[in-house]
Amino acid sequence: MTHQPPVYVVDGSRTPFLKSTGKPGPFTSADLLVATGKQLFARQPFSPDVLSEVIIGSVLPSPDEVNIARVASQRLGCGHKVPAWTVQRNCGSGMQALETAVDRIRAGHSNLILAGGVDAMSHAPVLLNDDMIGWLADLNKAKGPLAKIRQLSQLRLRHLQPVFGILRGLTDPVVNLNMGQTAENLADMFHIQREEMDQYALRSHQRLAAAYDQERMDEVTPIYDRNGHAFTEDDGLRRDSSLEKLSRLRPVFDPRFGKITAGNGAQITDGAALLLLANEETVKQYQLSVLGTIEDTHWAGLPPAHMGLGPVHATIPLLARNQLQLSDIDYWELNEAFAAQVIACLQAFADPAYCKQHFDLEAPVGTIPEERINIDGGAISLGHPVGCSGARIVLHLFNILHQKKAKLGLATLCIGGGQGGAMLLKRC
Known about the structure:
Layout (H helix, E strand, L loop, with lengths): L7 E7 L3 E2 L9 H14 L10 E5 L10 H8 L8 E4 L5 H14 L5 E9 L5 E2 L2 H12 L2 H9 L10 E2 H5 L1 E2 L4 E2 H11 L4 H20 L9 E2 L5 E2 L11 H5 L21 E10 L1 H7 L5 E10 L8 H12 L9 E4 L4 H11 L2 H8 L19 H4 L6 H16 L3 E8 L3 E9 L1
Parallel strand pairs: 3-4, 3-5, 14-15
Antiparallel strand pairs: 1-12, 1-13, 2-12, 5-12, 6-7, 8-9, 10-11, 13-16, 15-16
């Protein structure tokens, strides 16, 4: 283990994740943060204005909430004196917020931080295309009625073609591949069959359903819309899912030869997750119970076209630095961006050729038992609000460690653009 001052995760909560239906959902990003933050602070012996700072990861803040951390902190009652800022590392944004909080506390700059992630993906902007923007600029510059009429006559159907921000955001501009296409790359690279992906997706739904039925989703707190409707669990959960239903879905990203469908990939979702982190003095001052400590974090880069293997590239150096083996980790959360991506990661850990080529290892890293990874499902069944997921998997993994009375957990995820993040957790 690394030997540094401990940073404790005191408590945490998240909203239910709400799947996008093609229209803006009932909550903005700030609404989501405030809803879960209020319930989190209601359990604490201190008020929000004693925080040192607020750090939130977000990928798609609206124009009204550009620094979403500051907007939410003010609505939560943190006061004007508590600084708040937003970080962005694509799918790793929520985890980046947590690591940044750990670093700030270890460096002595802060003693109590609210950190986490959020995205309301259903509110992703729909933009004007460049032709339309140029036409509007010329219309604005036109002087007099005749000039404006001439410019109006230049309006064509191509000017009205919208640009969907979420599609642009989920496409890597360097290799010009969207995230689903990178998952297709991994399916081909590791010879993963469609049925194997669908089986994994079905298991994700079954495991999440069991977790709710057994009342083990303690971190989820209800949220209410303006009409008083209560959302109490992730509404992307399909309890009636089956291999037959999944097999009927058509490939999304490669209609002729692809294997990635809406059923075996993560859902587009709205959600927020928040955690409170503190140093030892603050824990003692307020006599706080704690979930555990964040021991170490590692970030890695790899080719954007293979971004789904980011967890492998982040995890192997993290374990080596802490002198750990795969078998030393009691439970894992590997974010389910796509079933093919999770399966590819598990195969890469166990592949001698891959481990030799990329990490110069003489033997494969090993295998992760099925009963130790994503035991309550994941993003395929509950959704993947990109700026939030890194915080969500850390929060849930802490809860698993407590429920199972286990010691070590590792949360990891792939990151659009060709990166991976991994975080080592220890239960107190």
